[in-house]
Design brief:
Low-confidence stretches: none
Helix content: 25-40%
Number of helices: 4
Distance between the termini: 29 Å
Strand order of the largest sheet: 1-2-3
Oligomer: single chain
CATH architecture: Roll
Largest sheet: 3 strands, antiparallel
CATH class: Mainly Beta
CATH topology: Urease, subunit C, domain 1
Order of helices and strands: HHHHEEE
Structural class: alpha+beta
Number of domains: 1
Length: 111
């Protein structure tokens, strides 16, 4: 299926927004039967507050590892979308996600 660049961009934004709005920390702690995460510590639903529940395994299940010192250049050929459109073509960045863990499983690891 060939999508136009506008449709591919809109679809990518919609899917990214959808997954970004899912509170995985809250869902995982609720499923594990711990107290409401929003009533503990800072009230945030991130991995640090999940760790405050005393369940280290749950905190590891909601973790993104970031290397703040890694310099990198965005290459459109490395993008996962078919259209490869980006306003950041060959832009230089510092800091990169090197591993993402969701539900205790590694779903992304920088090679």
């Amino acid at each position: 299926m060939d999508l136009s660049p506008a449709v591919a961009t809109a679809l990518s934004l919609a899917i990214g927004y959808l997954f970004g709005s899912i509170p995985f920390g809250l869902l995982i702690t609720r499923r594990a039967g711990t107290a409401d995460l929003r009533s503990i510590g800072s009230g945030n639903i991130g991995a640090t507050n999940v760790l405050r529940t005393g369940r280290k395994g749950l905190a590891a299940a909601t973790l993104v590892v970031i290397d703040l010192d890694t310099p990198w250049i965005l290459d459109p050929a490395d993008l996962k979308s078919k259209c490869k459109n980006t306003p950041f073509d060959e832009a230089r960045f510092t800091g990169r996600a090197v591993r993402t863990i969701v539900g205790g499983r590694t779903v992304f690891e920088q090679v």
